[in-house]
Design a protein that fits this description.
The complex is a heterotetramer, with two copies of chain A (about 160 residues) and two copies of chain B (about 110 residues). Chain A is of the alpha+beta class and about 160 residues long. Chain A has a single domain, classed as Histidine kinase-like ATPase, C-terminal domain (Heat Shock Protein 90, 2-Layer Sandwich). Chain A has helices at about 10-30, 35-55, 110-115, 115-125; strands spanning about 5-10, 65-70, 75-80, 130-135, 135-145. With about 110 residues, chain B is of the alpha/beta class. Chain B has helices at about 25-40, 55-70, 85-90, 105-110, and strands at about 5-10, 15-20, 45-55, 75-80, 100. Chain B has a five-stranded mixed β-sheet. Classes of the chains: A alpha+beta (about 160), B alpha/beta (about 110). At the B-C interface, loops of B face loops of C. Bound molecules: adenosine-5'-diphosphate (2 copies). One adenosine-5'-diphosphate sits at the interface of chains A and B. Chains A, C: GO terms for molecular function: ATP binding; protein histidine kinase activity. Chains A, C: Keywords: ATP-binding, Kinase, Nucleotide-binding, Serine/threonine-protein kinase, Transferase. Chains A, C: It holds the Pfam family HATPase_c_2.
Chain lengths: ~160, ~110, ~160, ~110
């Protein structure tokens, strides 16, 4: 179970670093090439959201991204330290949390679209998803199938 | 990779050719460009996304913002995009129903719907 | 003062991630293109060394890389959690700590070369260097001139 | 980018053409290759580094290890390298004095020093 953790000051530029790291680690963890674009986009959305929330409240706390390739799945958790009194609510795997999706989009107002587009993208991309908001901050947890062991083996034999 | 922007006029419309990555880091530049065009009186915009490598929701938000601005002047904002991975992002957010999406700048310039 | 921190399980594959992150963040911090190769190599050496030490003692502790672009310098600190009873000693900036260098290399035995090549590379590359070893682990701190402000400014204006 | 290795015989020497990155992650593959060659009786090796993009001290260590092995059989290990950023790494570690470094495989094959 190899873990990589990235922690960064809430600035937009570091969201790019998070995308870069997530894609590189996911590739090495054996996530299919066709899925890497999704991973990159989803982690970027989760981090953009965390950065935005942190800056909105003027907080200093960093954003933390944890990458884990255990048990045949590659999982990413993005955490912010902004107390969210159930603004978002907890979404279960693939569950709809009342966000604009393809189905309800027909008469959708542009205001709704703009405010939670990030979560809408994540919901549209990721099957295994868990969104939490709490007094100690929010987290978005996502995972994808991986082929751990095929590439992640240690060739050093130290 | 950074964002590249270039603007030209074609058939009475303003074509904004975008290249590179539209994300939380670069989207503000695109927003400025669109706001400037509308302030200068260009209300019929075509955003050519064929050179875009990466698009996130911040970029979508900027496009939605542009659409609102031109609509306030009875204008239009059309997109040119044939890249499946970019189209997918419009689709999963329901924005294919909000933006007219064309397969070429020519088609967008001639559109009258 | 923007900070990025990367923490990873002591595995060779993650050294690549550290190189990737360090080079990307350094570029954005305004480190000259001509120096990026040095940054990539130096951080790789420091991380390889930390991974090697951690694995030698069979420890579980992660390796931590801290990137900081404050005060016109881009600095990197690589820390391991392996207690080192002054094996290495503390080297001051640019100081020689008795390692093989170009000067003393003539009659150098191949054994010496192999065991501390990593530190030799770092010493040869980095001017601003601080190597520490202590009961709570070792650290290598390096820094380079940067042009903070030119690229690192926030264009979001949230 | 990963390591690529290919081996051929030229003028009684064995040429190992290396491409990509030789680092803490891939160096074990190069070590295996060198050990195998020596075990199979190839004692005059030429490592062509012209395709190498990245080299770290683990890679240097593997080359030093190879040199020790061939020397145990009165053999030789020559390098081909003209890339300044790779040469620099040999220089700062003093290894330019340990390895004969040539500017082409031809030069290395014909070397008799
Ligand atoms: N400065 C950067 N820092 C971190 N990640 C970056 C940076 N620039 C680009 N990326 C990311 O790295 C990936 C490849 O970028 P690349 O085309 O190499 O750009 P660049 O040449 O500017 O580094 C992209 O997916 C992008 O998200
Ligand atoms: N799987 C990887 N994980 C992390 N970093 C990598 C990986 N592969 C290569 N790199 C680093 O990224 C940089 C660019 O690698 P690249 O040529 O894009 O390789 P790849 O196509 O295998 O990702 C190199 O400097 C290398 O150190």
């Amino acid at each position: 179970m190899a873990i990589v953790e990235l922690r960064f000051t809430a600035l937009p530029e570091h969201v790019r670093t998070a995308r870069l790291v997530a894609a590189a680690v996911a590739r090495r963890a054996g996530v299919a090439e066709s899925v890497l674009d999704e991973v990159r986009l989803a982690v970027g959305e989760a981090c953009s959201r965390a950065v935005g929330l942190t800056r909105q409240v003027g907080a200093d706390e960093p954003v933390t991204v944890t990458l884990d390739d255990g048990d045949g799945r590659f999982s990413i958790e993005v955490r912010d330290a902004v107390p969210q009194p159930a603004v978002v609510g907890a979404g279960e795997s693939g569950g709809s949390v009342g966000l604009p999706g393809p189905s309800g989009a027909n008469g959708m107002s542009l205001d709704v679209a703009e405010s939670e587009l990030g979560l809408a993208v994540i919901l549209g991309l990721v099957d295994e998803l868990d969104v939490r908001a709490g007094a100690d901050g929010g987290s978005i947890r996502m995972s994808w199938p991986s082929e751990k062991g095929k590439i992640g083996d240690d060739p050093l034999g130290l | 990779m950074d964002l590249s922007l270039s603007t030209r006029t074609e058939g009475g419309r303003t074509v904004v050719e975008v290249g590179g990555e539209i994300d939380v880091y670069t989207a503000p530049k695109l927003r400025e460009q669109l706001v400037e065009l509308v302030n200068d009186g260009s209300y019929h915009l075509i955003v050519d996304m064929e050179g875009v490598d990466f698009l996130d929701s911040t970029g979508l938000g900027v496009l939605v913002g542009g659409l609102k601005r031109v609509r306030a002047h009875e204008g239009s904002l059309r997109l040119v995009c044939t890249q499946e991975r970019i189209l997918k992002i419009f689709r999963i957010t329901g924005l294919t129903k909000v933006f007219p999406i064309h397969t070429s700048v020519e088609e967008a310039v001639n559109a009258t719907d």
